[in-house]
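Hi there. Long-time user, first ticket. I'm pasting a complex I've been working with (about 383 residues overall). I'd like to know whether the download I got is complete or cut off, because the file seemed smaller than I expected. Thanks.
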Amino acid sequence: MNFALTDSQQKIQHRARDFAQTRVAPIAREMDERGAMPLELVREMGVLGFLGGPLPSEYGGEGWDAVSLALCYEELGRVDSSVRGLMTVHTSLVSQCILKWGTAEQKQKFLPKLARGEWLGCYALTEPNAGSDAASMETTATQDDDEFVLNGEKIWITNGNIADVAIVFANSNRALKHKGICAFLIETNLKGFAREKMRGQELGHRASDHAHIRFENMRVPKTALLGNVGEGFKVAMSALDHGRLGVAAGALGVAQACLDASVEFARTRRQFGQRIGDFEMIQSVIANMAADVDAARMLVYRAAWLKDEGQRATRETSIAKLFATEAAVRAASEAVLLHGGRGYSNEYPVERYYRDIKGLQIYEGTSHIQRIVIARDLIGKEM
Ligand SMILES: Cc1cc2nc3c(=O)[nH]c(=O)nc-3n(C[C@H](O)[C@H](O)[C@H](O)COP(=O)(O)OP(=O)(O)OC[C@H]3O[C@@H](n4cnc5c(N)ncnc54)[C@H](O)[C@@H]3O)c2cc1C
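Hi, the file is complete. Here it is re-exported in full:
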């Protein structure tokens, strides 16, 4: 068993770390306070090759393997979950999904622009009445000659207000349940596509854009189908297989950032005439956090490695997402406590990590849903 990263993986890790530390970390607090991120930062990620990383060179990518992509998400997650989240949706849920399911024309038209960051992508699955149970979606796609007419709404769509391209899921025959679902690859300037910011102040991920999207008799050509009629649910689940690895790697980054901040604080903060890091109770917290971070890293890298080996990794990806997000929730909670009153203020980044990490536990399948995926894979379905 070889745990070492290859030269090329190390180079990508260093490139991502350098960008995260020098370009994102200095503005992370300001982005969180302002509730938005500068679009130039996103364009820069395109120029630097991050957004198209895993795409083949013919579409403007660098052909990264899954381990390299996970390393990039980990480094971004260490400094800011909103920036990492934008990239996971754009690259893993959208671009990698087009690469797998798109026609030659769709790939040629969309992927180079997405790789360069000229166009941004979003993935529209969740609805007001269909969250964990995505197959029960109410958005309809009615066939009319060479077109489909879409009606319905989607909520919580990351990048939804700024995206140029959307993968939209709608049911063409609700009697068929999930077998009636179709995936559409559309440009967001179509007539009948209306979007607005989600209502309410969000707990974390405040620099992310989350949209409420409505489709009102939106006509899309048949050529916008991604996959065949009725294959939409498969398309959605295969995209989540990529996306969940991105969320798991991002959570690993958050957990690592909590550990780094806690170690630094334990070394420097003094009470009762000694470093707080010399109290055994604090040492125990830090040791548990370090063990969690190491275990999460092994699970995330294993899931990525299995994908690179061409093996099915749905269960392992869910295990990685479940463990890494839960470990990061524990780490963030302990990091805030360990910082005392300082941890309660955004003067220190652990306050933001604590708010952001809850989102990772919820989106792309909550921790409950990951447990269902894992258990069903182990137990199997009754015939
Ligand atoms: C920050 C953020 C970003 C998001 N980005 C996107 C995006 O880009 N695109 C997109 O399509 N969606 C996105 N979502 C939506 C997200 O995927 C859903 O919120 C999530 O899948 C849960 O659905 P729900 O909110 O409807 O909760 P519900 O499905 O109503 O669940 C409520 C609770 O019930 C539990 N539950 C449900 N079913 C079961 C079950 N069978 N067994 C046990 N427990 C169960 C859930 O785990 C949860 O605790 C985002 C959400 C957030 C918060």
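A couple of notes from our side: The pocket of flavin-adenine dinucleotide is lined by residues 89, 123-126, 131-132, 156-158, 205, 210, 359, 362-366, 368-369, 372 (CB under 6 Å). The longest helix spans residues 232-268.
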